[in-house]
């Protein structure tokens, strides 16, 4: 009786590559959290994390972009110091003023990915600049809607106070991040293929 020693492929190469990209983007989000500046007008700092959300949605699409953001949240919840200012732990996701922003990241990455890729995962470099910008504006609205809700819930702020401290003061920084994301995805040096 002959036995076969052929290997069995349990996971396809594409799934392994996409998972590796998601892990890479989760790590990138952790690095972006360390680029943090206090904002005297808000309880939330200015970070590069929103740029990471944009890039994950654009480059990984509407499935793997949110997966990367979920991996990032899990890493922070279990103790990796990947949240703004090196914070970590489940308490940051449940009781800190920034909880709404953090929970918005997978949703926003999915929205950006859907806006850029629609129903099929094509080459993001073929997407027009107006479509890229529109997708990121939708992602920004999601991030700030949940961020405002988090500030209202944790700090007891009114909507106007939460909007002012949690969204309005960040809009110039978000315009910069949108421009940076467009520049990055249009760069010939960057390709997630």
Folded structure, characterized:
The protein is mainly α and 193 residues long. The protein has one domain: Arp2/3 complex 21 kDa subunit ARPC3 (Orthogonal Bundle), CATH 1.10.1760. It contains seven helices and two strands; from the N terminus they run H-E-E-H-H-H-H-H-H. It has a two-stranded antiparallel ribbon. A hairpin with an 8-residue loop joins strand 1 (36-37) and strand 2. Helix 2 (49-77) packs across helix 4 (99-117) and helix 2 packs across helix 5. The longest helix has 29 residues, at 49-77. The model has no long low-confidence stretch (mean pLDDT 89).
List keywords for this structure.
193 residues, mainly alpha, Arp2/3 complex 21 kDa subunit ARPC3, two-stranded antiparallel ribbon, 7 helices, 2 strands, 2% strand, globular
The biggest sheet amounts to: 2 strands, antiparallel
Tell me the number of helical segments per DSSP (H or I, 4 or more residues long): 7
Distance between the termini: 44 Å
Name the helicity range.
55-70%
Order of helices and strands: HEEHHHHHH
- Which regions are unreliable across 5 or more consecutive residues at pLDDT < 50? none
Main-sheet strand order equals 1-2
GO molecular function, one term: biotin transmembrane transporter activity
Keywords: Cell membrane, Membrane, Transmembrane, Transmembrane helix, Transport
Organism: Halogranum salarium B-1
Membrane topology: Multi-pass membrane protein
Quick structural summary:
The protein is mainly α and 193 residues long. Helix content is 66%, strand content 2%. It has a single domain (14-187), classed as Arp2/3 complex 21 kDa subunit ARPC3 (Orthogonal Bundle).
């Amino acid at each position: 009786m002959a036995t076969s020693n052929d290997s069995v492929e349990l996971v396809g190469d594409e799934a392994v590559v996409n998972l590796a990209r998601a892990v890479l983007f989760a790590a990138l989000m952790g690095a972006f959290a360390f680029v943090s500046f206090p904002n005297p007008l808000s309880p939330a700092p200015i970070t590069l994390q929103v740029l990471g959300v944009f890039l994950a949605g654009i480059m990984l699409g509407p499935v793997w972009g949110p997966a990367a953001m979920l991996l990032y949240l899990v890493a922070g919840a279990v103790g990796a110091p990947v949240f703004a200012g090196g914070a970590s732990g489940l308490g940051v996701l449940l009781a800190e003023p920034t909880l709404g922003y953090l929970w918005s990241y997978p949703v926003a990455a999915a929205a950006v990915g859907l806006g850029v890729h629609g129903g099929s995962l094509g080459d993001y470099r073929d997407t027009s600049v107006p479509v890229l910008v529109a997708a990121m504006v939708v992602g920004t609205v999601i991030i700030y809607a949940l961020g405002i809700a988090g500030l209202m819930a944790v700090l007891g702020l009114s909507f106007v106070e939460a909007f002012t401290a949690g969204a309005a003061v960040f809009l110039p920084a978000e315009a910069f991040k949108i421009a940076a994301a467009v520049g990055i995805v249009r760069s010939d040096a960057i390709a997630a293929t």
